[in-house]
Amino acid sequence: MNARPVALPLDRLRQQVERGEVDTVVVAVTDMQGRLLGKRIHAPFFFESVLENGTEGCNYMLAVDVDMNTVDGYSISSWERGYGDMEFVLDLDTLRPVPWLPATAMVQCDLAWLDDAHSPVVESPRQVLKAQVARAAEHGWRVFAGTELEFIVFDDTYEAAWDARYQGLTPVNRYNVDYSVLGTTRVAPLLRDITNHMHASGLTPESIKGECNPGQHEIAFLFDEVIRTADNHAVYKNGAKEIASLHGKALTFMAKYDEAEGNSCHVHMSLQGTDGAAVFADGEEPTDLF
User: Fold this and answer.
1) Scanning 143, 174, 216, 229, which has its CA 20 to 30 A from the CA of 183?
2) Which domains does the chain have, with CATH numbers?
3) How would you label 185-215 residue by residue, b for 16+ Cβ within 10 Å and e otherwise?
């Protein structure tokens, strides 16, 4: 599989900023819960300072629970040790437009310590994955992944869902819409917005289908090198929620929202050699490694 071009080359972003078409650059990292955390940087300041010098964020981002409460037991960050900063190391290969938000671009980052060597924060999810990719490369393998994420959409806003303590919410479909064309048609404005915006942001959506739980749907994306897939996966989950909010709806990827069918996260993994050949198959037969 050939390397894909950057969704938003740096020179193009610079031109867009100079023309006033982009005024915000989201600088983001993936946390332990798979969420995007970071800052919104004013685009002129991004080029004046952040592009060369980076930016910082508190190391507690990797030592909190899902409600952002600090959790005991982390060696990198605690009340006893203190809470310091980490450096956001821009990965310019991840630059992308965020077309569902006005005048916005995004870049994803690695995390490093503020020492002379800029040592990587090995506990960060992106570094954990990079370490596994490096181990595979030592064997002459390239790692690929594709994801299919199911989600449930509600006609309630996020604020209304919070106020209702997430009880008695109204799904956008009232019945099982697994493979139902009519079922997805009824939610098409939202689903089309998600897929079209993800495509414009550098992802490759393959298909949309309804699922079993009322209001449940799935979008599948083309496989890619595993780090790029993981980056895109985080962008998609964050973006789908933002787009749902713009439609006055709420959307959740929660694994088990209620007693009915849960939201699966299908992850398809494969290995290729440096020559592009499959590692686990030789023609019609599995290899010895398999």
Assistant:
1) 229
2) 10-124 (3.10.20.70), 142-273 (3.30.590.10)
3) eebeebbebbbebbeebbbebeebbbbebbb
Tokens of 101: 């938000």
Is-contact 202 7, C-beta < 8 A?
yes
Q: Kindly state the DSSP code that residue 250 receives in the 8-state scheme.
A: E
Residues 6+ away with beta carbon under 8 Å from 24:
40, 41, 42, 43, 101, 103, 104, 105
Read off the pLDDT of residues 45-60 as tens digits, 9 standing for 90 and up.
999 999 999 999 999 9
Q: What is the pLDDT of residue 283?
A: 80
Total residues found in the chain within this entry: 290
Q: Above pLDDT 70, what percent of the chain? A: 99
Beta 24-30 vs 104-112: how paired, if at all? parallel
Structure-token pair, residue 176: 């099982």
- What is the Cα 96 distance to its own chain's centre? 12
Residue 227's nearest CA partner among 97, 140, 104, 124 is 124
- In the chain, DSSP finds a helix count (H) and a strand count (E) of 8, 14
The stretch 213-217 carries a mean pLDDT of 97
Q: How confident is the model at residue 26 (pLDDT cuts 50, 70, 90)?
A: very high
